[in-house]
Amino acid sequence: MPVVPPEKLVKLQQHGEGIRNICILAHVDHGKTSLTDALIATNGIISPKLAGKIRYLDSRPDEQLRGITMESSAISLYFSLLRRNAPEAKPEQKEYLINLIDSPGHIDFSSEVSTASRLCDGAVVLVDAVEGVCSQTVTVLRQTWVEKLRPLLVINKMDRLITELKLSPSEAYTHLSKLLEQVNAVMGSFALGERMEDDLRWRERIDEKVTAAAAAKDQDAGDDVKSASKGRKTSIAEDEEGLDTTSTPADYEEKEDEDIYFEPERNNVIFSSAIDGWAFTPRQFAGLYEKKLGIKRHVLEKVLWGDFYLDPKTKRILGPKHLKGRHLKPMFVQLVLEQIWAVYEATLGGPNQKGDPVLLEKITKGLNLSIPAHIMRSKDPKALLSAVFAAWLPLSTALLVSVIEQLPNPPSAQEARIPALLEASPGAEHIDNKIKDAMTHSNAAISEPVVAYVSKMVSIPKSELPINKRRGGMLSADEARELGRKKRTEIAKAQALANGEGDVVSVTDALSSAAIGDEDEIPGGKVEEEPEQDDDPEHLIGFARLFSGTLTVGDEVYVLPPKYTPARPHALPQPRKVTITALYLLMGRSLESLNTVPAGNIVGIAGLEGAILKNGTICSQLEGAPNLSSTTAISTNVPIVRVALEPAFPGDLDKMIRGLRLLVQADPAVMYEQLESGEHVICTAGELHLERCLKDLRERFAKCDIQAGEAIVPYREGIVRAEEMNAPKDPALGRGRVEGVTTSKQVTIKLRVMPLPAPVTEFLVKHTGAVKRLYSERKAQDEERTTPNGGEGTADDGSEDIIEQDIEADDATGEGGHNLTMAEFKQRLSEAFAEDKVDKDVWNGVVEKIAAFGPRRVGPNVLIDMTEDQLCGKFLREEHEAMADQAEPTDKHTSTFADKVAYAFQLGTYQGPLCGEPVQGVAVFLEDICINVSDDEAAQNVGRLTGEIIRTTRDSIRQGFLDWSPRILLAMYSCEIQASAEVLGRVYGVISRRGGRIVSESLLEPSTNFTILALLPVAESFGFSDEIRQRTSGFAAPQLVFEGFEMLDEDPYWVPTTEEELEDLGEKADRENVAKRYVDKVRLRKGLMIDRKVVESAEKQKTLKR
């Protein structure tokens, strides 16, 4: 294949109609990168013979070694196609530019899928023909739905149905039909969920209008019914702006059938085998059989898939009702699958599995294929198979033609996607109409405002930049010697590391330094290392999509911070102005320099280093600019595995910190923090992700040896109402009620601690995002009322708390409920409280008395203000209520101390009494604050009293917590494993040994494989994947997704007390208290006191004799 010059691709960037931005999404090992290879081969970048084997876009050595993709990478491809403008017109050659992004399938790198999907307009979703719909398949389909990408389904690895499962064409057709039903069921569930949500909101809007109309007319109760029914009818017709009249069921279903489901007759399903290099759509076979059967092509396209049969005598198409008892094969089996099976029989079948030459000759003559003679004589049947399919059904043709015909170009895609995207962004009503219009129509004029979304920062070594690379031609003698020296050094180092020979590395370093021929040679290896480390520094390049305007090298643009809103464009932190230093065409392993890039393209942008942390929006103007980064869909697997790092040589600490900061910018899923103890901790999405981060740190970013400690796993603490609990600490007050008195006896705080009902805790965990948003809105309203310039002043007060709160909210299991309004949130929270039947009177009306959520203001614990004057204020309040509260005078000192109680609540729930982990599912009722001194004395001692109140309140919360039966909550992974029946027992053994439990087990028909769903504690998951692979000889590989926290139903402080327990278990309790083991492990790591005996049996100790 001829190599396509970059100049041709740059020229095609100017024509938006001929651009397609697509990403390839799938579960791990479903063939994404192999499929991409076949497309890359069409541009002459790799040989067609190596397609599917070289995995070109897996450019990292560890990606090649493990055989999985870890980073999403982009490449631009050229494709030309003969198309007719009209049925009778002469075909014209049209050229297209396809910007393709290959994404990882492993759950640890699902953040890379999020970064890829925002940049694209269409998605090619792969499904393994044997394994079917897996966990990540559902995730990527949801991603396409949320991002409103047009999907194209590829059923890959069709060869496995023939070679592994040995299915007949009829059995394969039945299997493929079921598989397609599974995928469509997933898409249907998304559509149904959205449909129900839209319908609910639609009805609520109508009811609001009816209520408003009834209130305005102020009619009596008898007339209300009539006005409501009349108002309901008129509001549908009159409300042109607020109501979406297309959401009536009939219209919605019609839209579903047209756009949502995958149907081969609509050519949005491709059947392929990437490893053998073939793919087809029903349209291709319709073209083959059009003349032979005398049936028009567009008719054949509709009937090739489904319950349609061909009458062998009359050559007419029959439906299932007209078979009249005859056993005919479906047309897809007879005309399509049997032909594919015949090729495999001719090349890989036969008595000796070496093919059938007679059948092969018949096929090649019938299809008019010319196979080179040297391939026909080849002893490799796979080469012959690939040659036949390459000539008959080449994978690239089927896929790229479908991409061009089925997936939208940037102008039409942005017209459909951008309005919803802008509406979801903060301050949507303040976005400049000129920017809205330019983005919606993908306007690439130079005069239009430039808006681009940077989805992640990519780290590129300096030597890989185009400016440092030789452009074409042969190497000079010096360059060849230098390249040879570097390669020899790399090989020697790799061999030495593999053999564990540390001395060889220093020898090769010395030889390489001597080979360079430096005049000023300095003895000693340490001094030689310094210039080598600075020799190839890493540069960060923005991986971006341009939505409007034209970006040119040298342009000055604003980088919008994550909390930017067009309502307050100059609020702190101020948006930063940067100069674009370079633009790059992304070509997989290499980059090509660009001068200008028009809207609709995917591009690499240099000059953003230090200005963008992980993702962000850049815009040529500040006023009215949209903030796209706040609406991005973050990965499904949140960072959960935390590890403390330290350099092996203490002098390398600065290098390690610099490297960590680079790593945080270059990896969208990594978080870095420095603990109060001074530890440097990184938070990663899983064990494999952690390995990759450590490798990058050691070899690329820090370039020094780094040691990682044991993984720090998060826990949660909670309380329950158990059947057998110790008596209350103070029977007179009751369980959980505490009267805390400060050390000076001047302030008394009365509070009560209770476990929250399970539905409430579940609701708060699920809707952390809603609490976070409501808190941000309330804070912004308070600032606007107190700051004269509308909140654009300094943001010093509480800035640290906001940062901490954001970190905590990002760590949450899943930030749902962003779209809930204050009224909806209160209503659903009240419904959750109403579900509890035991303490119905206690929880009645508490929603209106909630003063704070915690810890860090967004957690699943509540502070309920039961004081007479509502001292702590009301969290869930409307704007008019806030104004009324501000107008009401309150006792200054009491309200000041109430704020300190609320702060102590945040501290008390952030570090629980069991092992200093955050608390979950606890309600703290503040009943009274009594100040036993005069106002003047309180004013003089406010500093001292503040500390006393915080300490007393925190200790009281902990005391009330321990009055109930405490529990530890374990972080849990949802584990999906596909395994054959032979290794099922071994898989179960590994799961049970690590404290996991099986949730479900289902057989994957028609194969003998089982899909096992299990729950596994994160603390026991390290080394789990490797152990599963070893025990099953590589036949099973787990996918671990963070599921949330699950309570371990065991009191860590339980000891046998009754006669039966003592008789069964003895004084020491023979069985291990698992909860206490986890608690002690965390306390030991944090340096807290542990109640354990150093010597168990002193009389049995031994000493060695000399």
Written overview of the protein:
By secondary structure, this protein is an alpha+beta fold. It is built from 36 helices and 33 strands. It has an eight-stranded antiparallel β-sheet with strand order 14-13-19-10-11-18-15-16. β25 (737-741) and β26 (747-755) form a beta hairpin. α5 crosses α7 and α12 packs antiparallel against α15. The relative contact order is 0.07. Residues 223-255, 501-533 and 788-814 have low confidence and may be disordered.
Average pLDDT: 80
**Spatial arrangement of strands, main beta sheet:** 14-13-19-10-11-18-15-16
Query: In whole angstroms, how far apart are the ends?
Result: 80 Å
Question: What structural class do you assign from the helix and strand content?
Answer: alpha+beta
Brief sketch in words of this structure:
The protein is of the alpha+beta class and 1106 residues long.
Topology:
Elements: H1 6-12, E1 19-26, H2 32-41, H3 61-66, E2 73-83, E3 92-102, H4 110-119, E4 122-128, H5 135-146, E5 150-156, H6 159-163, H7 169-217, H8 221-238, H9 249-259, E6 269-273, E7 278-280, H10 282-293, H11 297-303, E8 309-310, E9 317-318, H12 331-348, H13 357-366, H14 373-376, H15 381-392, H16 395-406, H17 410-424, H18 433-440, E10 451-461, H19 477-499, H20 502-516, H21 525-535, E11 538-548, E12 550-552, E13 556-560, E14 576-579, E15 582-587, E16 590-594, E17 596-598, E18 602-606, E19 616-619, E20 641-647, H22 653-666, E21 671-674, E22 680-684, H23 687-701, E23 706-712, E24 715-720, E25 737-741, E26 747-755, H24 758-766, H25 768-786, H26 799-811, H27 822-834, H28 840-843, E27 850-854, E28 861-865, H29 879-887, H30 892-910, E29 922-931, H31 935-940, H32 942-962, E30 965-980, H33 984-993, E31 997-1004, E32 1009-1017, H34 1024-1031, E33 1038-1048, H35 1059-1065, H36 1074-1086
Parallel strand pairs: 1-3, 1-4, 4-5, 5-6, 28-29
Antiparallel strand pairs: 2-3, 6-7, 8-9, 10-11, 10-19, 11-18, 12-17, 13-14, 13-19, 15-16, 15-18, 20-22, 20-23, 21-22, 24-30, 25-26, 26-29, 27-28, 30-32, 30-33, 31-32
